Amino acid sequence: MTDDEEMTIHRGSGCFWTDQGYPNPAEMSVKSRLCGRVTEILLARGWGPLAAAEATGLGADLFALADRGQLSKFSVGELIEALTRLGADILITVGEAREGERGLALVQGVDDDE
């Protein structure tokens, strides 16, 4: 960019998946958080793709896709099942959305800030 060119700045929505134009940003956000937690557990245990596949029931090739952010190959259910096989507890809470607003799908770990 040269000095005489103008830069346009666009404010994001706060959701990467929405800003990238995904048709299902809430689902992608949930998948991303779940997949990130699976990855954290596997890294802490020092497991590679083969050990991870054996422990989770997912294909070893899927872990390479997850590392590249290609989450469309996973379902939320598969990621929840993988986490429980890795010893994680899953708590799903359904509550009321704020009046006039659409509900949210959130994933929060026990170590996340409230």
Automatic annotation (TrEMBL):
A Pfam family that the UniProt record links to this protein: HTH_37
Protein name as annotated: Helix-turn-helix domain-containing protein
Lineage, broadest ranks: Bacteria, Pseudomonadati, Pseudomonadota, Alphaproteobacteria, Hyphomicrobiales
Domain annotation HigA2-like helix-turn-helix: ranges: 18-94
InterPro entries registered for this protein in UniProt: HigA2-like_HTH (IPR039554), Lambda_DNA-bd_dom_sf (IPR010982)
Gene3D superfamilies reported in the protein's UniProt record: lambda repressor-like DNA-binding domains
SUPFAM superfamilies in UniProt: lambda repressor-like DNA-binding domains
Domain of life: Bacteria
Species this protein is from: Bosea minatitlanensis
